[in-house]
Specification:
By secondary structure, the protein is mainly α. Helix content is 67%, strand content 0%. The radius of gyration is 15 Å and the shape is globular.
Length: 140
C-alpha cells in the first residue's frame, strides 16, 4: 500500500488516525537473518515508511522526511531501513535531516555492523556500501 502525500490531503483527520494505527501494527519486518537483504523487503519497508511518515506529518505537522529520519534511527530500528531510504525519493532530505541531528555517525555505525554480519555476501555488501556512500555524501 502506497499513500501519496497529496492523496492524504483530501482525507479527514478522523480517517487518518485509524490508518496510522493500522500501519503501526502492520510494520513490515525483514527476514529473521540480519544478514539477509531482500529487494522485496526493502521496497515493502520503503512503502511503509513513506505511508507512515506522510500520515504522521499530516497529523502532527512537519515534513515526511523528518518522520522517516525518526523512524529509521529509533533504537529498535533495523539497520536495513537505512538501505531502504537511500533509494527513496526523499533520500536527500532524510540524509540532510540526519546530518542536522548529528546522527550521521550513528547511521554509518549501524550499516557497518550490518556489513559485519554478511562478510561473504557480495550483493549485500555492495548495497550496504552504496548506502554508506550516499549517507557520507550527505554530510553538510
Amino acid at each position: 500500500m502506497v499513500l501519496l502525500p497529496h492523496a492524504l490531503s483530501s482525507l479527514h483527520l478522523e480517517t487518518l488516525r485509524p490508518l496510522q494505527e493500522l500501519l503501526t501494527q502492520g510494520q513490515p519486518t525483514f527476514a529473521n537473518d540480519s544478514g539477509s537483504i531482500d529487494f522485496l523487503d526493502l521496497a515493502r519497508y520503503n512503502d511503509w515508511l513513506s505511508a507512515t511518515a506522510a500520515i504522521d506529518a499530516r497529523l502532527s505537522g512537519g515534513g515526511a522526511a523528518d518522520h522517516i529520519a525518526t523512524l529509521v534511527m529509533r533504537e529498535d530500528a533495523d539497520p536495513r531501513g537505512l538501505i531502504a531510504i537511500v533509494a527513496s525519493p526523499l533520500a536527500e532530505q532524510v540524509i540532510r535531516i540526519l546530518a542536522q541531528r548529528g546522527q550521521m555517525e550513528a547511521a554509518q555505525q549501524r550499516l557497518a555492523g550490518l556489513a559485519q554480519g554478511v562478510p561473504n555476501d557480495i550483493t549485500a555488501l555492495r548495497m550496504i556500501e552504496e548506502a554508506r556512500n550516499r549517507i557520507a555524501q550527505g554530510r553538510p
